[in-house]
Queue: 2 jobs
Job 1
Amino acid sequence: MNWFKYSSPQTFYPLAGRLVPLFYVTAAMLAAAGIYIGFFVAPTDAQQGEAYRIIFIHVPAAWMSMFIYVVMAMWAGIGLAFNTRLSSMMASALAPTGALMTFIALWTGALWGKPMWGTWWVWDARLTSELILLFLYIGFMSLQASIDDPRRADKAGAVIALVGVINVPIIYFSVKWWNTLHQGASVSLTRSPSMATTMLTGMLIMVFAFWFYSIAAALMRVRCIILERERNSDWVKQMNGPRT
Amino acid sequence: MNWGSVGEFLAMGGYAGYVWWSYGMAAACIALEIAALIARGRQARRESENTAGG
């Protein structure tokens, strides 16, 4: 299979159109399973009672907020380096979904922090760096929106995206590097997870649900961007059929 | 099974507001994003068809 075939907007547009429903359906099924496990199989937490059930939204959203940023910066960087249109469009398509995930992570974090720490918000390393991530997404989107020429907007956005990527390891390691109210990683590659198995299973299934949802939303958005930018090109005119 | 009744489930051990506002906001955000994407797609298709016709 020739993957480069799909690197042009013209061939990617119909492919993405076929993939979008698949990813939405998978995401919905995973979310249903994850929520079922999260509420009906996973036991009550010994310390946090039922409040911990926020984890099934909070951790997947927080992971996706960082992961999407890295993927967005990667596409933006490829677009900048090789001048490939579709890569830059992918970066622009990911930004709003990444911002949404960041917002959900902050929102659910506040609702979890209030009953557990006694406060909605503290200016500590983890929370502040996650808030900066939200501002990076918003900065990327508003900068691109303010530049009329799409190719120049791609280049300017790529610079913000690539500079901002330094924030992602800062978020991730903030709980190790600084004293913070936020608990350390519950799941890591180097040691066994500090959670009950059913809690962990539910959480990981929700991570995949959020993952598939993000892909579906980004593909749907990239189709919009392709059409908006290429509506004067021959292939769009052909796709729409001749009109007299 | 963790819950003896629907009421117990909804009460979330006294954390109902925190838990349901988390899930509700996440669901609302996702619903809004999908609605916005559908609207943007429709608009993009309409404009591209008009361009092709023009």
Note: Chain A is about 75% helix and 0% strand.
Job 2
Amino acid sequence: MTHNATLPPPGPDRQADQYAPALMTNRWRDSHPGVPPRLLPADSRAGVDLQPHMERFGPPPYRGAPGRLIGEVEAAGLTGRGGAAFPTYRKLAAMAAGRGPAPMVVGNGAEGEPASNKDKTLLWFSPHLVLDGLQLAAEAVGSVTVGLYVHRNLRLYERLGVAIAQRAAAGLDAARVELIEAPLRFLAGEESALASKASGGPALPRFKPPRASQRGVAGLRTLVQNVETLAHLALIARHGAAWFRSVGTQDEPGSMLATLHQADGPTGVVETTLGTPIADLLRLPARAVLVGGYHGAWLPAEQARRLPLANAALRPLGAAVGAGVLAALPGDRCGLAETARVARYLALESAGQCGPCFNGLPRMAGALEALAGPRPDPRARADLERWSELVGGRGACHHPDGTVRFVRSALRVFADEMDHHARGSCTGTSGRPFLPLPQETPLDNTDWR
Amino acid sequence: MRKQLRVNPIDCAGHGLCAELLPELITLDEWGYPIVSGEPVPRGLERHARRAVADCPALALFLADVPR
């Protein structure tokens, strides 16, 4: 715990440009006529002030005692929106039932994935829903120690500081929210990295056990929930489980935020519902579709066209909704080149702690760079397959596993392209990078704090 | 309670001693880091497994309960 909410942290403002969030609210309007979006404002008006929030939603409906909200969250079927889709009520119930000192609750807004903007957008436009959810989650598990973990960014910090101060002036909340600064690293939002950072250490993943829920921030049992999950929680507390389930699918209910990267240009955050056809979200045709971000998987565009954005359909194909990133690779780009660029970034984002990851990921990136070029060494592909087999499941966190998932999907989906490259040709005609990466990739390990 | 070998990959520095002491359950990858069998340690190897754990210079190897 490092920063008072009212004092913006020092440090570079590297991601400032990524904080001009682009909303695509018309998509929700088109698919749900007459129904306002749940998490995002109906127009692009920013919602930092408490008063309009209270007019739209009313005060957070505290239950007056721990545990009471948990049954409603279970009935709603809310799952974590940070990527793992774990049932939220199970985390709440385990935390509420635990023994010992009161736990800590941290909202996780560290969105290290460069292709995802949905958490930043949510915090920018609807900070009070997240802050409501934090307080409600804290009440549900009997906690009075609350943090909000957000990537270093002056403008967002100032905004959240204003929102928190307004709530304090209104006497709305039981627990004071402490803003905790996340470094601009891919893995900074990993749960054990969060716990380490919030305890005063570097934001590096730790070996489990213990998990944060067992021994997290400053040794306290710690509930970590993605900020979007908390915003849904705030709405379930107000409107109930049946309302939450009125959109989405039976098994995967509710709405979700997604970051869309269209082949023909714009990138933006939309609110959609689980089960929405991918073809309704992305403008196809495209060469391929990346689902779930850089720990996600490529799918052939023809396959993606027929699929809904739901884990029930995606998981059998080795893909997952994840944190809701969808990218349509333009027809003029080479999927191998795009994958190699991202794989190199992922290798540089290894925390460098675990032998298989810090040895394997740079080699995998190198082999992909060879495969992305003309007439690669015939051994490159076999090397890549072998290293993919070797590094999976052998890290303290899931970085090697996610990287392997992403790379293997490229080997499947861009197999034809590999044949072209073996003959010295490439079907891509534009070398312009498509998938977003940070402008500066950290090259040393001094910036995990 | 049956035990399995686990390695803390952050602590592991790739000394490779464990694979010398217990080649039945531990091999090394091409960079010298251990690949540890997730199978329950067979009865006949329990003493060797404890020895490998005790001798790890990085204290990175341990015996854990097999998850149900």
Note: Residues 335-422 of chain A form a domain with the de novo design (two linked rop proteins) fold (CATH 1.20.1440.230).
